[in-house]
Write a sequence for this structure.
């Protein structure tokens, strides 16, 4: 195998393997290798632990037991459902969320900063039961009759049969795609 | 601290709360232009102008 080193391609010519990566330090079974076309992989102790495949999917073994594609959270927000009394603290933390619209009691629209690639994403909602719902089953989820869009999702907390809204102090929404 | 209010399709008023992360790179005007549904009028108001008593939250109305 010829290794080419020049000012145009850098270091080229060796793909390596999990057991003997192409780029390694003093530890010869830990480093980076190129297992297939358009693919970059990383190995530790001779075992592949992370890969960027030819479709740009990030795959890793973080206790999964094997290297598998990881599906990232594309947006998340933790906000106070009682909103107007908390001023700037209404949204406690977020990622890829421009704003939360308070549409009414227990009714909120989460607006994404960067749009989703399509509207077939997964919405995960968790919320704190409000005092009003303490003696009733409460549900926090996608609003009945609403439509997921690439730019926002409408979520509600309902109690006692689904028609009565309520406000909670803690609401968390995460979007996976 | 400013919020954005606009009339919603249920006949009430929506209050748009900007995220701290968005305010690091966008103005409240830019957030309103992006997140208020197309065709809806809106106003930028100080948070102190919004009632803190939410007892009749669903009865709130937007006035131009």
């Amino acid at each position: 195998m010829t290794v080419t080193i020049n000012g145009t391609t850098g270091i080229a010519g060796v793909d390596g393997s999990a057991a003997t990566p192409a780029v390694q330090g003093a530890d010869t079974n830990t480093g980076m290798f190129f297992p297939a076309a358009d693919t970059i992989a990383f190995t530790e102790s001779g075992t592949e632990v992370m890969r960027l495949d030819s479709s740009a999917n990030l795959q890793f073994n973080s206790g999964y037991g094997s290297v598998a594609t990881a599906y990232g959270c594309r947006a998340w927000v933790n906000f106070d459902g009682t909103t107007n009394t908390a001023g700037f603290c209404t949204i406690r933390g977020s990622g890829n969320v421009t704003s939360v619209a308070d549409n009414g009691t227990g009714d909120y629209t989460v607006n994404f900063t960067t749009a989703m690639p399509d509207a077939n994403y997964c919405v995960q909602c968790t919320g704190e039961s409000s005092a009003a719902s303490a003696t009733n089953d409460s549900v926090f989820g996608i609003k009945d009759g609403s439509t997921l869009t690439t730019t926002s999702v409408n979520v509600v907390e309902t109690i006692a049969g689904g028609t009565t809204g309520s406000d909670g102090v803690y609401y968390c929404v995460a979007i996976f795609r | 601290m400013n919020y954005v209010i606009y009339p919603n399709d249920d006949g009430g008023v929506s209050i748009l709360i900007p995220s701290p992360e968005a305010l690091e790179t966008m103005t409240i005007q830019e957030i309103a232009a992006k997140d208020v549904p197309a065709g809806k009028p809106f106003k930028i108001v100080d948070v102190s102008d919004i009632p803190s008593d939410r007892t009749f939250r669903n009865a709130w109305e937007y006035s131009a």
Summary: The first strand of chain B starts at residue 2 and ends at 7.
